[in-house]
Amino acid sequence: MQEQTPQDILIDAINAEDPDTINRALDALHPSEIADLLESLPKKDRTLIWEFIPHNDRGDVLSHAQDPVRAGLLEQMPPEEVADVTKSLDADDIADILNDLPESVVDDVLFSMDIQDRQRLASVLSYSEDSAGGLMNPDIISVRADVTLDVVSRYLRQKGQLPDQTVSLMVVDRENSYLGVLRLIDVLTKSPDATVGEFLDSGVKFPADDPAREVARVFEQRDIFSAAVVDVNNKLLGVITVDDVLDVIQEQAEQTMRNMDGLVDDDMFSPLLVSARYRALWLGINLMAAFLASYVVGRFEETIQQLVALAVLMPVVASMGGVAGSQALNITIRGLSTGQITKVNSGLLINKEVGVGILNGLTWALVVAVVAIFWFDNYALGAIIGLAMVINLIVAAYSGVVIPLFLKKIGIDPAIAGGVLLITVTDVVGFATFLGLATFYLKG
Questions:
Q1: Which pLDDT band, with edges at 50, 70 and 90, does 1 fall under?
Q2: Contact in structure between 328 and 355 (CB atoms under 8 Å)
Q3: Which structural domains are found in the chain, ordered by start?
Q4: Dihedral sign, Cα of residue 348, residue 221, residue 205, residue 173
Q5: How confident is the model over 92-134, as pLDDT tens digits?
């Protein structure tokens, strides 16, 4: 029998209303695991579990929870408690939490903090949460280039602890202008009499207004663990560490997946009416697209009546086009999200995907044509569906690239609208081509 996980034990304890087991199960979980568990529970059970979470752990749990779940938990907390449970967190994590609160409540929380904590937050809250400034942690350790490594080592021992994820120290001049970084490994392994400047590395820096997406792209490309954030005058403002960037990458991936399905609600257990309202719009858009495809089919009603086999084979053409188009669409959306697709190479991508569409179209057109000939004993029908499939797969591949490029250009997220538009194109072209060729054959 498979051993129960702490999460399984906790859920069983909730159902059994066993407080002792709930406490023991929570003690065995990391704050991030508790946050994941809360996201998997209905609101009533979340409220129950929240009361059992130790006060000192609540800030960490809030920092790991998704925005909708975190916002629901914050609604239950007075401003004084929010200020208290978050005081041990990094400033960027506190800023993320405060962004889920109404502005009036944020003011109350800030008023409940001591002056030092308010000053820590001031620089972060002045920037958008989707920018480098919003991601940064202003709690940094900086040193000057003209001091020795022995001085740096004694300085670090005096401080007693370093911010989490610290692998290097920021190097600045007397005016706090950013010069580069000093790796901690150099502090430990190089001659104590050497100066910081001898081992200065240029590092990576971001202007505070740079978008978080660009920050994540650079971290991913260069495999770095931290980077400086500077203002327009190159003054050091803070540091971004890899754990913050991993959160951005995860949020972007989840958002893209939700957008491709037309989902906006992040909370799996969001209220019934809220979820229904979010999803109704895209169901309605999809319905209009379906009616358009049905209208095209209706225009060939007489043709279908003369050759009933057409009704059997129609879904094959549309389905193959939909799959081929989705493959190109997904590649293009991923390229746009990572910044790999530019004006320079977009034309090359279109040509490549159309070439793939031609090769796959010819290959599978031959297969489907042979099947249709043997199935219905009709060589003309095999030729018609084969030609229709080649045309639809080429159009699908072309549309799979052009549609997201066009949507991006006009400011619409391709992940939201791209799928609906693509399916409409492949259905309409597939049906119109197949039935149009059949009509031409029957009339000839």
A1: very low
A2: no
A3: 6-130 (1.25.60.10), 142-243 (3.10.580.10), 272-443 (1.10.357.20)
A4: negative
A5: 788 888 877 777 777 778 777 777 777 777 778 788 888 899 8
